[in-house]
Design brief:
Shape of chain A: globular
Structural class of chain A: alpha/beta
Largest sheet of chain B: 5 strands, antiparallel
CATH topology of the largest domain in chain B: Sulfite Reductase Hemoprotein, domain 1
Strand content of chain A: 5-15%
CATH class of the largest domain in chain B: Alpha Beta
Oligomer: heterodimer
Number of domains of chain A: 1
Strand content of chain B: 15-25%
CATH superfamily of the largest domain in chain B: Sulfite Reductase Hemoprotein, domain 1
Largest sheet of chain A: 5 strands, parallel
Strand order of the largest sheet of chain B: 1-2-5-4-13
Bound molecules: iron/sulfur cluster
Helix content of chain B: 25-40%
Chain lengths: ~150, ~550
Amino acid sequence: MPAQLTDNEATPIAQTDDYGLAANDAVNLSIPSFSEWLTQQNGSRLRVSTADDIAPLEAFIASVSYVEIYFLDSNDGRGFTLGRRLRDIGFTGELRATGAYAEDQLQYLYRCGFDSFLLPPAVNKETASELLRAISVTLQPSTISERQVILSER
Amino acid sequence: MYHYQAADRQLLQDRANQFKDQTRRFLNGELSDEAFRPLRLQNGLYFQRQEPMLRIAVPYGLMNTTQVRQIAAISRRFDKGYAHVSTRQNFQLNWPSLEYVPQILEELAKVDMHCIQTSGNCIRNTTTDALAGVAHDEIIDPRPICELIRQWSTLHPEFAYLPRKFKIAVSGSADDRAAIYAHDVGIALQERAGELGCRVLVGGGLGRTPVIGTELVPWLPIKHLLSYLEAILRVYNALGRRDNKYKARIKILVRAMGIDAFRDAVDREWAGLRNGELTLTAERLEPLQKAFSPPAYKTDLPPTEMHSNPIFLRWLSRNTHEHKQPGYRAVTVVLKGHGSAPGDVTADQLDFLADLADDFSFGQLRTSHEQNIVLADVEERALYRLWETLQQHGLAWALAGSLSDLISCPGGDFCSLANARSLPVAEAIHQRFDDADYLFDLGPIELNISGCMNACGHHHIGHIGILGVDKKGREFFQVSIGGRQGNKAAIGKILGPSFSADDIPEVVEKLLVTFVHNRLPEETFIQTYDRIGITPFKEAVYASATH
Ligand code: SF4
């Protein structure tokens, strides 16, 4: 089981990050958030929210091996642009989508450079693999990672 | 016209299957209303007051007759036997049931049609001049570029969840008939020393906050168009507001940043994209240009002596347009008239228009943003015969660009966002002004009606604009004058306090009387307005309203 909050009133404050996100099966607080990472500027793994401006990341991109983009809600399309920008500035590590994106966005996310997915609740790997292949034709360039796609069920 | 390739057809097939699966998951409860909403909207399906409404894409308004007949057949089989031309050159079905939508999509796919991105917060159907390719003042045929943009924007992975809808229009003529100043991005094609390029405008739009677009770049070689558009969309997607849907359009972002800062942001983004994969090569552009090469015009047509029937001549002067090719004219069939909403067309009329297009216009027809149908390539010597046939079907009555050619959104009878019912107002105006001689003498007058601030009826740019407003739960209408489309696009000025629906025909009449009274010989409504200003109109309308 992933870490769960208890009813103990003292803990939630300690266990939410600077986005106000609490640790749960979609948020792993052991990975530094973007602002936490910025203060250290040397970790190889970080969490980014769709609201972050990642420009400062560019200079350090070679040392980063894992980025997790947390979708605040499924209509928040900034994550798609974030993914492509990360790939454009040369990020070659694992790019994971977590949070509130929708299963019908999987293929678009994949085409924007994501290669790792914490699947939405109730979506299993088989369904996800089908959704990733829903449209077999593309009419514009994609940013597709060379890596093997990682799918994790909740 | 562009012919779908195997890849285009496969895409439509995949998309139809995908939507079938999404609808199935919605109907069996796997997808919530909220989760299904963006998916159905991206596929043109609205849930509104009465039944769902399905919007069918007509890329840049161009169709062949097989497609038109298929729309007629679909409207008979799955709907009430009529369809509606929207102000974005698309077709709408007002009454299909959700269960039938996947089947409708399959039927559409058979004739290379679809509903992709006709709604939702994505890049919508690219629009252009209904006279594209035939207009006498055309510099560059915009259709190959529209097709290029269609392909680039179709199921674009990065831009399907924008802050708000995004509309692009392209013009290739001296005279802007594509309303490029009223779009999120407007593209004016140009040529410099033999090179194809364009001027790019950004941040125009109607709706709650009407804004005339601003120049982003005066000249962009065409090979960079797609990478530049991608940069614009990327800046908008990253920075556009998402907290308030009324502040989410790109015009608000451009205004908040200022045009120079916005341009800098686009240029920074573009630096990484330009000369990349999206760069347009001659190998990519030429087949598109070839797809739109002129039809087999006859070059040896003798000069035509026009029939002297005065009613025909009136129709000829208003509903036909000068053509690039000597001996030909383009014809507007106005879809306005008594008892039906502007832009409504029955299945039988669609079949009839398809027959006409086959007989008179190389088997193609167009939808216009004035909610009409255009037959673009008619021989002059066939015009009288065409007019007679149209007359027999009641389709030669209204004069293009006159009061009887008014534009209206569907309003409160169909649309859940409406403040007021716009269609009864349109009908009342039709009834009051049905004297063809009078309408002809008035000359060109554009009257536009919207049922709410969203401005789907483009009331801001009507010479006379009518907007439905809600006052303590009652329907009222605000009237503005002096708006216009084209190169001198301007937003109309509000006359004063609003009116009840019953008052509107009277108000319009007073505006017209004021115009006729003040007009110099040959002056149009808008010219008189520019000369005398709003005051005489205001006085005429309100003086007698308060007696
Ligand atoms: S202007 Fe308003 S009422 Fe009319 S169609 Fe648009 S949203 Fe509906």
